[in-house]
Amino acid sequence: MSKAPGHVEVRRPARGESVYARYLRLNELLSLQKPEEELAHHDELQFQIVHQVFELWWKETAFELRSISRLLRDAHLSEALRLLQRVIRIQYLLLENMRMLETMSPWDFHAFRQLLAGGAGSDSPGYRELLRLSPPLWDDFRSLLDAAGISLRDVYLSAERYPLLHAFAEALIDYDEVMQTFRFRHYKLAERMIGSATTGTGGTPMPLLERTIHDVFYPELWEVRNQLSTLAQEQGRI
Ligand code: HEM
User: Fold this and answer.
1) Distances 157 to 33, 147, 201 between C-alpha atoms, Å
2) Residues 174 and 88 sit within 8 Å (Cβ to Cβ)
3) Residue 208 sits in a domain of what CATH number?
């Protein structure tokens, strides 16, 4: 039989393991959760899986953020935009993933919470990478604007003249907003599980966690909205 162009011959592994399982390394992947008989509580398996899913998608996010930064530095704005849209979509997916934990009651969480003593989400390598890689994207974008002699305000005042710059600026603020939504939803999840006047297993008091809700990566993008409103007011539009 003739083979289609680009056909890749894949041999089945000899001993039982399918190509699917081997390619996806399912033996390793599915052994990374506690065996059922070792679970301290029924809901512990879901808790582990939800967190592992976060780490996987944040690994992909960090990979894309590094690519976006490179693309911006090479002035490949439309490809950078495509990847940033992917990054944004991942974070929305993760908001739904986090909601899975709302199917757990606070008392059920207390049945295994002591296993996390000393552990904290702040040790998440994925989240740390996002905190490290996200803010510098602004500098990469800013350099593009500076090189073209265009201010951020110009981009917003004349979006039709700078469609790609405008689309990228809007995608950056989408990303910032969904990350802020993550912080808010995460705070509410934590509050729903352990209350607002307690301290996390990692030692952070809940009021401190609540303050991070207001953190943003790109303050300039939020600030330019104020400038536009002031300008609109000066022009008698509002
Ligand atoms: C029962 C559900 C959860 C509770 C009660 C909870 C609680 C907390 C608390 C209290 C903190 C402050 C640090 C500390 O532990 O002392 C924290 C931090 C954190 N948690 Fe969670 N969390 C939950 C689920 C999740 C999930 C599903 C993720 C996703 C990976 C996550 C990611 C994080 C991150 C990234 C931080 C650090 C935040 C920062 O440094 O600003 N948490 N969590």
Assistant:
1) 52, 19, 48
2) yes
3) 1.20.58.480
State the Cα–Cα distance between residues 103 and 77, nearest whole angstrom: 41
pLDDT (tens digit per residue) in 144-189: 999 999 999 999 999 999 999 999 999 999 999 999 999 999 999 9
Closest CA to 109 of 181, 200, 180: 200
The token pair at 93 is: 């997916």
Q: Distance from the CA of 122 to the center of ligand 1, in angstroms?
A: 7
In a domain, 57, yes or no: no
The answer as to whether 139 is a domain residue is yes
Range of the domain at 133: 76-234
**How many residues does the structure list for the chain?**
238
Tally of structural domains, the chain: 1
Could you report the per-residue pLDDT of 212-227, keeping only the tens digit for each?
999 999 999 999 999 9
Q: In this structure, is the dihedral angle defined by the CA atoms of residues 118, 124, 130 and 132, taken in order, positive or negative?
A: positive
Q: Is residue 187 one of the residues assigned to a domain? A: yes
Is 8 a domain residue?
Answer: no
Q: For residue 181, report the distance from its CA to the centre of ligand 1, in Å.
A: 14
Residue 199 bridge partners (DSSP): 205
The reply to whether the predicted model has a pTM over 0.70 is: yes
Protein residues whose CB sits closer than 6 Å to any atom of ligand 1: 50-51, 54, 98, 101, 109, 120-122, 124, 127, 186, 189-190, 193-194, 200-204, 209, 212
